[in-house]
Amino acid sequence: MVQYHGIGIVGQPEPHVYFHRPLHVLLGACFAAGFVMDGIEEPAFPAGARSNRNLGWRSYTQIPPVLVVRLQLPT
After folding, report:
1. How far apart, in whole angstroms, are the C-alpha atoms of residue 52 and residue 68?
2. What is the pLDDT along the chain (75 residues), one digit of tens a residue?
3. Contacts of 3 (CB under 8 A, 6+ apart)
4. End-to-end Cα spacing for the chain
């Protein structure tokens, strides 16, 4: 896992710590425990959604701000 520092909010007194975790690392422990992935969603804001900030997620309709994965144990 790679750790690095960056700006989370402009003007913050200390750098924000980021941890890069690839999907295989995030999901690997689940797969090793026997879970299977049976659903995945990448919801994004619709084109035309308004934001008060130019850098808000609503300005980036092609980049989903979240990845949702459903895992289940096989029956």
Report:
1. 25
2. 678 888 878 888 988 888 888 889 889 999 999 999 999 998 877 766 665 556 566 666 677 778 899 999 998
3. 17, 18, 19, 20
4. 33
What is the DSSP-derived secondary structure letter of residue 56?
Answer: S
Task: Spell out a b/e string for 57-68, using b for 16 or more CB atoms within 10 Å of the CB, else e.
Answer: ebeeeeeeeeee
The residues near 49 (Cβ < 8 Å, ≥ 6 apart) are 58, 61
Alpha-carbon span 16 to 62, nearest angstrom: 25
Is the distance from CB of 65 to CB of 44 less than 8 angstroms? yes
Contact 65, 41 (CB under 8 A): no
